[in-house]
């Protein structure tokens, strides 16, 4: 529309694009928009006189305004036929405008843009105040000068110039990072302007590296500092990926999704949790754990109660073995964010999601506080927030535990409670003179390897209660045969350690006994190395004795 109007509108269009860049329109979208223009240049030339020249000016101006990288022209040329008007546009931009002496100043004044004369003056003021700050080190004064400029929409230029200065002058880096940190903490530079400044610099790193060879390395060292100190939004890391990296990441994610669908379907057929865990570990992508949870529950919701029950039981096993609480909470956030879309395909999706959430709390996969954290990550008044409220109601209802364990019509979830009774009985039989091989077979017959930590816990508590260390012999055989894994053994010891204060009310020497069991287990190699330090910290008196 601007191409078909006067110079005033063309100038306004260029200024508007600069203002929208990064905050509203992402860099890839800007590039895609210009590519669409170049591809339709032949049609535009039919209706607009000098379309090639005008479009060349818009492209050149975008490069000067740093909303298109200089490399855009070379890349775009490769996608267009040499006979096309779009190719001519790029040739004109490159040879007639961007290669001319003082081309930046000429392009900014080409459409009589008084607006951009002010922008150039502003850039100079920003450069001057930053250089003065490097000499004086007075952060308060520098912030005051930035505030006095009165151009909050242009603070991304302050960010970009400060970062470039930090790279140019090694001694300036700590000053610049301190200034940006304080400006962010005061609310002087907004989060979006900070991200926009970093994004603009990331776009021009290739050109900057011609003058500062270490520019990329320096930039990559500054970004994590800024994020860890809280003045650059962590989302920048994702948005700063190059196109190639982003495409590779997308391919990797697509491949992962295909793999996990196969793994989940195989699990629904085999009910083999250890095999599923091995398959996930072989993929070696723990950062995608929340995506696995989302896919698992989405697939389960579209199947029968048996698969829903299996999904809940699997979550308990994954939480013990390889998933963190944060992974599971983030997976539920992803599910709840897409709840409205899911509801289009799955009848009663909201109620079923609430049951999955409530069941996760009953199974100790999540704690009630996690539900508040999940809600805080969701938009207010969305259907996902309502689902979390339903889950809370289910948890606080009478006999919630029993009802939720049977929410999918019984099955494995209720079998967990049943398994506790069976474990207690088999250990009592073994303690009163039973045979090790028989006890091992009973554990094997339970068919719940993900729940063997309960065997470890109950065996240790019984050893304390009966003052009989025969249980250690059983655990040794179970470990030697691979019946109880090192993860399950460590989980069992951890559960006893967490409940020591309560146990000490019934068994006064519980801490001393547990210290002895821990030392024995470590000598036999039953426990993960990470358990040692945490156990010692938790047992000062036992360790001393």
TrEMBL record:
Pfam families: MA3 (PF02847)
Taxonomic superkingdom: Eukaryota
Molecular-function GO term, any one: ribosome binding
CC annotations in GO: cytosol
Ranges for domain MI: 1-78, 121-242, 255-376, 418-537
Places the protein is found: Cytoplasm, Cytosol
Family classification: Belongs to the PDCD4 family.
Listed PANTHER family: PROGRAMMED CELL DEATH 4, PROGRAMMED CELL DEATH PROTEIN 4
Listed name of the protein: MI domain-containing protein
